[in-house]
Specification:
Largest sheet: 5 strands, antiparallel
Radius of gyration: 20 Å
Distance between the termini: 60 Å
Strand order of the largest sheet: 1-2-3-4-9
Strand content: 25-35%
Number of strands: 11
Shape: globular
Order of helices and strands: HEEEHEEHEEEEEE
Amino acid sequence: MSKIKIIAIIAIFVFITMACGGSSKPEVNAPSNDSQPVQQQASPIPEVGSARSNPAPIGSEVVADNMAFTITGTIRPANDKVTAGNMFNSTPEAGQEYIFVELNVVCKKSTDEKCSINPTFNMNLIGSLGIEYDPNIFISGVEGLMESTEFYGDASVKGYIPFIVGVGETDLVLLYDPFLGDTFYLAIP
């Protein structure tokens, strides 16, 4: 076989592999709440966790990228915590405040394989005003912030992701946009 044919076969194999396995739907394990009535609507409702309009409920675990994500709490406002950490930390503008979203991530791979999390590149916050907020990565002196981490199967990492949002923002949703696969949304308490 010529080198061109071999390269073409490899390229086709890679394309088919990515097409079949590259778009994995996140799995949502929502806490049961049998007391909510089922509502009938004319328009189709997006799958739980797959859209901003239908985020995974508070307390849910979403499995994607071989990791399980659960929001375990928030601190809002967190301005005092940031100011106490370092006087040179950014101060929110008038009408804005810090919110810390506490996230727990468990690696679902084997104990010999690594997971990788980078909250500054894969996560954003969206609220009732429809504005997408990036994490504020320029904070120092504050304990418990989640950092970019590699960790092995069955291990977990937990920490706060800091955002600056509008004071009146409600219905906050954390979105995770994986390198491969579908974006998912988690409701913020």
